[in-house]
Amino acid sequence: MPEKSFKYVILGGGVAAGYAAREFAKQGVKPGELALISKEAVAPYERPALSKAYLFPEGTARLPGFHVCVGSGGERLLPEWYTEKGISLILSTEIVKADLPSKTLTSAAGESFAYEILIIATGSTVIRLSDFGVQGADAKNIFYLREIDDADKLVEAIKAKKNGKAVVVGGGYIGLELSAALKVNNYDVSMVYPEPWCMPRLFTAGIAAFYEGYYANKGIKIIKGTVAVGFGTNEKGEVKDVKLKDGRVLEADIVVVGVGGKPLTTLFKGQVEEEKGGIKTDAFFKTNLPDVYAVGDVATFPMKLYNEMRRVEHVDHARKSAEQAVKAIFASEQGKAIDEYDYLPYFYSRAFDLSWQFYGDNVGETVLFGDNDPSSSSHKFGSYWIKDGKVVGAFLESGTPDENKAIAKVARAQPPANSLDELAKEGLSFASKI
Length: 434
Ligand code: FDA
Ligand code: NAD
Fold this sequence. Notes:
The protein is an alpha/beta fold. Helices cover 24% and strands 29% of the residues. It contains nine helices and 26 strands. The chain has helices at 15-26, 79-85, 148-160, 173-184, 205-217, 315-333, 401-413, 420-426, 428-433; strands spanning 4-11, 34-37, 88-90, 95-99, 104-107, 112-120, 124-126, 142-143, 165-169, 188-193, 221-224, 228-233, 239-244, 249-251, 254-257, 261-263, 274-275, 278-280, 292-294, 299-303, 308-311, 346-351, 354-360, 365-370, 381-387, 390-397. Strands 1, 2, 3, 4, 5, 6 and 19 form a seven-stranded mixed beta sheet that branches. A five-stranded parallel beta sheet has the order 8-15-9-10-11, with helices on one face. A hairpin with a 4-residue loop joins strand 5 and strand 6. Helix 1 (15-26) runs parallel beside helix 6. Residues 51, 124, 169-175, 177, 192-195, 200-201, 227-228, 258-261, 313-314, 347, 349 line the site of nicotinamide-adenine-dinucleotide.
């Protein structure tokens, strides 16, 4: 017999879990009905802070400052909030078995939890270099960043190896944000990645040229077209150098690895339908099982705007998908209907004094507009993506709130673009007219 039984269980304690809990409260969940089970030791927080202000030497972010839902301008959900609402916040509890037919979850400590409705919000985990068999990848001071425990270990090492040498492996989100954070901490930073330019899953060559130039001007060494194949260690087992495939060897006191994430779906393998690496859902985040929902990074859902199943690993979708699922659960209990999820992809990043936003789809031809000279003081530039004669995606560095709203509007409205040259010349004013 399960030791504890709840009407609703949220499995996970990240961004989607926190926003789901708030939506449950808004919808009038009764005390004792809802549990949130997380392997983390702290209540849900805004994960993006970990690669930004959490690592800064000044203006440092620490909990409880960034518990959800402050990231989107809402009230902060402190641990007391869950108590007040009668929501069981079950922390430091890793679920190791999910038996969906019997609606039971079992923790590593052997506790079992029964639910009537389950929301899977297990997010992603990091891809490790040891997954590719890189020699020495388990040396001390090689860090990954996903959860607050990882960030705490990194902060300790940054202090211990003060003003040292850092090698950042990976040229994606973590690579770019962590290189900047380490530089701000006065580290001598080198970035290594295999592609011809950084963040290739979103950036065009023209966009990347700006960031690579800007980072180089800050003193960050960028090494492209190669990968880390091994690590040397000192007598304490700490990393001391990084061996690259092209034969170069880089000295390192700290290594940070950001070579991608993978959704945490293993607990549910063979029990629920999957698609494109995630758990397949409908437009209400319901899986093929009637009482199981999946939200955030793990969900592969119908992206209505593009008429395609997609998975999104970003915070805005984690928040909105969680809210949609909880609204759908309550609506279905009341025999009501709600609108299908109609998501406009929104990604952003911040590093140094830079800040970009992207909306829509990065497919088709591209035009670059504005001033993308890394040495200029304005650094306001952007890019449009054009497919089948329509503007489907827009990127902007250093936009004002109104300008960012304008590019979001363009990506949603998909206005026709008659000529790419015209579009490049018009630049931001094209978006501002829509
Ligand atoms: P999330 O990873 O937030 O939460 C999953 C939770 O489930 C965790 O608490 C985990 O411990 C728990 N869990 C997993 N398995 C479990 C188990 N078996 N038992 C119990 N608990 C379990 N996005 C963006 O748009 N802008 C940004 O600036 C950033 N910045 C950023 C920085 C860093 C360092 C990371 C790692 C990620 C970002 N992101 C981002 C991505 C964004 O944070 C991410 O898409 C969301 O956190 C996804 O929310 P989820 O709730 O789906 O997963
Ligand atoms: P990513 O997919 O953004 O980037 C992975 C990068 O790894 C690739 O661009 C490539 O350069 C590099 N790479 C792949 N194999 C490599 C190898 N063998 N050696 C060296 N480099 C290699 O993933 P990430 O940066 O690790 O981020 C992890 C997760 O966190 C993602 O889900 C991401 O969306 C999320 N995140 C998002 C933000 C944001 O939205 N601002 C910030 C941080 C993290």
